[in-house]
């Protein structure tokens, strides 16, 4: 539906020039909840502003429904944006705020009233229609902003960190709410965040960005299970990285040699998630080593177990307290641990500009 082709953006000229986006390519499907995720300065807002039309690209094309819209004025694009700071009209009621875009388009009153009512019902604010928007809580204001952006039925809704001003509890509720809204309306959402958990819980697909480049585009599960490189593995979820020597299809770690499918000769970086490290275990098809328990940290649902291997390598394991409640590991003890080969990933360890 939206084809982003070789899109680039430079700011400034000569020595002071900054390339905020380097020839980015990807396609967003109709009805997708698509997220741009990355650390501060990676270029996600720049990309969103190019799609909205608030800024024009230095090169490339933005093809929507077969037509290049990259140089079209923002008000002519079938795209709407919800910002972090809701930008509501404070002196207007909730109903008037939502009606505003339709009135500006000159739609008849008989059409506007039912559209506003339906939209307020969708965001569960029907009862507050006549309240001034300045007299609402942060979460309610954000819902009005959503209703106002959705009522004009854009082809694409752009959301620029729309939940970051909300407190933790409200933010979690709104994540579920937003996902529900997107499903019920069937609209295409492009959502910007630097919060990996928010991206994982809401998105159909995520583009992980750093240094003005897309590092990987995949579903949340694929990103977590098969990160393309060290940047993605480190940014999404918790990871252990192990540097090992490899020869003849086997790797050496903590004095033991283990066959690892796909291992090429030389130094390799392996990644394993903390929940896959098996404690007090010796398993077939795994790297089996001894480790010293350095520290235990209780997190309610699970416990993080910090380990040191004989060669000084540090690892963290995570065990679920409900499953292992009565199996305790004393700090200072030496235990056997197993790193199952099916959970180990060989990671491209290229330097990536943050
Ligand atoms: P954040 O999460 O902090 O908003 P971001 O990922 O959205 O970060 P961008 O705002 O897209 O990042 O910025 C990408 C790069 O482009 C940064 O290095 C930034 O300093 C630079 N940049 C953005 N806007 C301008 C501008 N108007 N002039 C010069 N440089 C800019």
UniProtKB/TrEMBL annotation:
The organism's taxonomic lineage, starting at the top: Bacteria, Pseudomonadati, Pseudomonadota, Alphaproteobacteria, Hyphomicrobiales
Family to which this protein belongs: Belongs to the ABC transporter superfamily. Spermidine/putrescine importer (TC 3.A.1.11.1) family.
Subunit structure: The complex is composed of two ATP-binding proteins (PotA), two transmembrane proteins (PotB and PotC) and a solute-binding protein (PotD).
Record function comment: Part of the ABC transporter complex PotABCD involved in spermidine/putrescine import. Responsible for energy coupling to the transport system.
Main EC class the enzyme belongs to: translocase
Keyword Transmembrane helix: no
Keyword RNA-binding assigned: no
Residue ranges constituting the ABC transporter domain according to the UniProt record: 2-236
InterPro entries in alphabetical order: AAA+_ATPase (IPR003593), ABC_SmlMolc_Importer (IPR050093), ABC_transporter-like_ATP-bd (IPR003439), ABC_transporter-like_CS (IPR017871), Mo/tungstate-bd_C_term_dom (IPR008995), P-loop_NTPase (IPR027417), PotA-like (IPR005893), Transp-assoc_OB_typ2 (IPR013611)
UniProt protein name: Spermidine/putrescine import ATP-binding protein PotA
Natural source organism: Rhizobium alvei
Keywords assigned: ATP-binding, Cell membrane, Membrane, Nucleotide-binding, Translocase, Transport
